[in-house]
Automatic annotation (TrEMBL), chain A:
Designated name of the protein: ABC transporter permease subunit
InterPro entries (UniProt xref): ABC_transp_perm/SBD, MetI-like, MetI-like_sf
Keyword Transmembrane: yes
Membrane topology, as annotated: Multi-pass membrane protein
UniProtKB/TrEMBL annotation, chain B:
Species annotation: Miniimonas arenae
Family: Belongs to the ABC transporter superfamily.
InterPro entries the record matches: AAA+_ATPase (IPR003593), ABC_transporter-like_ATP-bd (IPR003439), ABC_transporter-like_CS (IPR017871), P-loop_NTPase (IPR027417)
Pfam families cross-referenced by the UniProt entry: ABC_tran
Keyword set, alphabetical order: ATP-binding, Nucleotide-binding, Transport
Enzyme class: translocase
Claim: Nucleotide-binding is one of the keywords in the record: yes
One GO MF term attached to the UniProt entry: ATP binding
SMART domains named among the record's database cross-references: AAA
SUPFAM superfamilies on file: P-loop containing nucleoside triphosphate hydrolases (SSF52540)
Protein name from the UniProt record: ABC-type quaternary amine transporter
Documented EC number(s): 7.6.2.9
Automatic annotation (TrEMBL), chain C:
Lineage: Bacteria, Bacillati, Actinomycetota, Actinomycetes, Micrococcales
Membership in a protein family: Belongs to the binding-protein-dependent transport system permease family.
PANTHER family, per the entry: GLYCINE BETAINE/L-PROLINE TRANSPORT SYSTEM PERMEASE PROTEIN PROW, POSSIBLE OSMOPROTECTANT (GLYCINE BETAINE_CARNITINE_CHOLINE_L-PROLINE) TRANSPORT INTEGRAL MEMBRANE PROTEIN ABC TRANSPORTER PROZ
GO BP term, pick one: glycine betaine transport
Short name of any one Pfam family annotated for the protein: BPD_transp_1
Membrane topology: Multi-pass membrane protein
Protein's UniProt name: ABC transporter permease subunit
ABC transmembrane type-1 domain ranges (all copies): 27-208
Gene Ontology CC: plasma membrane
Subcellular location as annotated: Cell membrane; Membrane
Length: 217, 274, 229
């Protein structure tokens, strides 16, 4: 506790850097995953390929990816960009599957009836499929966010500053409170973002609360 | 013989009784059908016989012995049980599914297999299908395997929980007549539940018409019930007022036809014995 | 792409295939830690998950555990345990962290496998007079095995990745090439290490994927392959 209070300035800096390194990849990945997932859902032959590639990508350890990416993309090894791109790819690998499965979870009857009353392709996607896919999508987004927050710390091993720097530094200088503070702050940041996502879900999908109330009654 | 003596079942102290003070005797070697809409407690009653459900009050006796005093596992092994969606184990073949019962009773593999094949033949399953998995069988075929498994129990009681409810009407008819044939051969003590009055009248020597909470509205032979419905509920349930239940004889060109209330001909009346 | 050529040259240099820091030795070390952690985690998590699935108790506990495990950074746990236990026990610290990481996905796989079995199937197993143990071993475990192995697969990814991180506290494994390369400014060596770890992870995942497919009972595979007429 003493250690944390003595280093508030550093902790604030690292937390903000950490949040940026986690939020940007998840947001970019979500924007990319929506069209890709929709494509995998609509074109069955592509489904296997896309999800297979996503699975393959997800298999590669993050630390290895930090090393593999720079020569492939021509970006500097020690850079925020390297970590952001690597984590975006991970989040994308998770979210493409999530979006596909979320769209598959939409009852076909709802889509058919929307088509019957005259919705066209794009408006069906935006007005019917996306909202109904919401719960599954949100669940996947929460998993991707929490694991990305945790994975940012690995970037510290290649020298990119985040709360993970407290681990490498604390280990080197043998300061247990520093490491512990890092673990707690990382977990708290994950928890905070998770709660924010849940709140956003509640605001964006008000009908779910009504359904739950009926289900428990 | 199965006897229910004033059984009551409450699933929680707050809710009402699923079954309230129900009594019934199913004589040995006969078929009794409990018929009622969903929520009448018929499945609860059935499952009390093999202790899948224990009554809150009252007793269920099998051949005079209270089932509460018997080990549930041993009891279930001796009582046949056929479920609506066959309930077959998906990772076992048809023959293996039936053999489960003699195997659990301690018979060796070969004996269990030959008993299983014998029963599959009895229920009219093509022997070539014996080594197929449930997923490779049609709904009707799966249900035959389910009946064979029920018959594999060593005791004479067979519990049937809407066994033909999920198959199409044509196959249902075949299975119903198959069951009547098997029952003529084996004379098991069958407790059968359904929500289908026609099925109850076809299969039951005695039918029991239930309303909510396992309340008995009427019991008797199908003929008794149709001839004299005890009350409005029964009359409505069995469709005693329905025009197609009102049959009369109409003579046409010297042939006597049976026609229903909408003048649809149902058959020809003869004096020959069936 | 010059760097990849250098890495390839490094990988094919016979000098890097011998000695205590040769590719075979370090690959074996990486694999040993991974498998040890997976076996220990299975020994704890599979029975616990089966108990949850069989009895239906403790499901919310398992869900909370899986969520918490995702939020905890493995690098932080590792650093913390090494400092607390002392550098002399860094092997123990590593195995403890690996097992802790591997438990939640395996636990979830074990209970989800039982949860996914249709009610009617379990009901009929009870109806024909199977005891609780017979239902567990003859119905729940075999039918739930594919999802359990799915959990092991997820755990193996995390473990392979975390073993690599353990190179930073001085445990020799494929991650060692990355650290040594970083120190020496030898990017080819780092790249070679990254390629080796990625290959190990992919091979292990492939093996588990095959095992997962083989674990699906024949009758169930047919149910998903062709819906009968």
């Amino acid at each position: 506790m003493r250690w944390a209070l003595d280093n508030l300035g550093l902790l604030g800096q690292l937390t903000i850097a950490h949040a940026r390194l986690a939020i940007v990849p998840v947001a970019v990945a979500l924007l990319l995953a929506l069209p890709l997932g929709a494509l995998a859902h609509r074109v069955p032959p592509l489904r296997g390929t896309l999800l297979g590639l996503a699975g393959l990508l997800y298999t590669i350890p993050s630390l290895a990816l930090f090393v593999l990416l720079p020569p492939m993309l021509g970006i500097p090894y020690l850079s925020d960009l390297n970590v952001i791109i690597a984590l975006t790819l991970y989040a994308l690998a998770l979210l493409v599957r999530t979006v596909t499965e979320a769209l598959e979870s939409v009852p076909p009857d709802a889509v058919a009836s929307a088509r019957a009353i005259g919705y066209n392709g794009t408006s069906i996607f935006l007005a019917v499929q996306l909202p109904l896919a919401g719960p599954v999508l949100l669940a996947g987004l929460r998993v991707a966010t929490v694991s990305t927050v945790s994975m940012v710390t690995v970037g510290a091993l290649i020298g990119v500053s985040s709360l993970g720097s407290l681990f490498t530094d604390g280990l080197q200088r043998r300061i247990v409170p520093e490491v512990l503070t890092g673990v707690v702050l990382t977990a708290l940041l994950a928890l905070l973002l998770d709660v924010l996502l849940q709140l956003a879900g509640r605001v964006l999908m008000p009908w779910l609360r009504a359904e739950r109330a009926v289900a428990t009654a | 013989m199965i006897e229910f003596e004033g059984v009551t079942k409450r699933y929680s102290s707050a809710s009402g009784a699923a079954v309230d003070d129900f009594s019934l005797v199913v004589p040995r070697g006969t078929t009794t059908v409990l018929v009622g809409s969903s929520g009448c407690g018929k499945t609860t009653l059935l499952r009390m016989v093999n202790r899948m459900v224990d009554p809150t009050r009252g007793r269920v006796l099998l051949d005079g012995e209270d089932v509460a005093g018997r080990d549930p596992v041993a009891l279930r092994r001796s009582v046949g049980y056929v479920m609506q969606n066959s309930g077959l184990l998906p990772h076992r073949t048809a023959a293996q599914n039936v053999a489960v019962v003699p195997r659990l009773a301690g018979r060796d593999r070969a004996a269990a297999r030959s008993r299983s094949l014998e029963l599959l033949e009895l229920v009219g399953l093509d022997p070539e299908l014996a080594d197929r998995y449930p997923a490779q069988l049609s709904g009707g075929q799966q249900q035959r395997v389910g009946v064979a498994r029920g018959l594999a129990a060593e005791g004479d009681v067979l519990l049937m929980d809407e066994p033909f409810g999920a198959v199409d009407p044509v196959v249902r008819g075949e299975l119903q007549h198959e069951l009547l044939r098997i029952q003529r051969e084996l004379s098991r003590t069958i407790l059968f539940i359904t929500h289908d009055v026609e099925e109850a009248f076809l299969l039951g020597e005695e039918v029991v018409i239930l309303s909510r909470g396992g309340h008995v509205e009427q019991r008797g032979t199908p003929a008794d019930v149709l001839a004299a419905p005890a009350n409005e509920f029964v009359a409505a349930f069995v469709g005693a007022h329905r025009r197609d239940r009102r049959l009369r004889v109409d003579e046409r060109d010297g042939v006597r036809l049976v026609v229903d209330g909408r003048d649809r001909p149902l058959g020809v009346l003869t004096d020959e014995a069936p | 792409m010059n760097l990849f050529a250098d890495a390839l040259a490094w990988l094919t240099d016979p000098a890097n295939w011998t000695g205590p820091f040769g590719i075979p030795t370090l690959t074996l070390a990486h694999l040993t830690y991974t498998l040890l952690a997976l076996v220990l985690a299975c020994a704890v998590a599979a029975p616990a998950g089966w108990a949850i699935g069989h009895t239906g108790h403790g499901r919310s506990f398992a869900v909370a555990l899986a969520g918490a495990a995702r939020a905890l950074p493995s690098l932080g746990l590792l650093a913390f345990l090494v400092l607390v236990l002392g550098v002399g026990l860094k092997e123990v610290a590593t195995v403890v962290v690996l097992v802790l990481l591997a438990i939640p996905p395996i636990l979830a796989g074990a209970y989800a496998g039982i949860d996914a079995i249709p009610r009617g199937t379990l009901d009929s197993a009870r109806g024909v007079g199977m005891t609780g143990w017979q239902r567990l071993w003859r119905v729940e475990v075999p039918l739930g095995l594919p999802l359990l192995l799915g959990g092991v697969r997820g755990a193996s990814l995390q473990v392979v990745s975390t073993v690599m991180i353990a190179a930073f506290i001085g445990l020799p494994n494929l991650g060692t090439y990355l650290i040594a390369g970083q120190r020496l400014g030898d990017y080819a060596r780092m790249l070679a290490g990254a390629i080796l770890v990625a290959a190990l992870a992919l091979v292990l995942d492939g093996v588990l994927a095959v095992a997962q497919r083989l674990a699906v009972p024949r009758g169930v595979r047919m149910a998903t392959a062709a819906v009968p007429a």
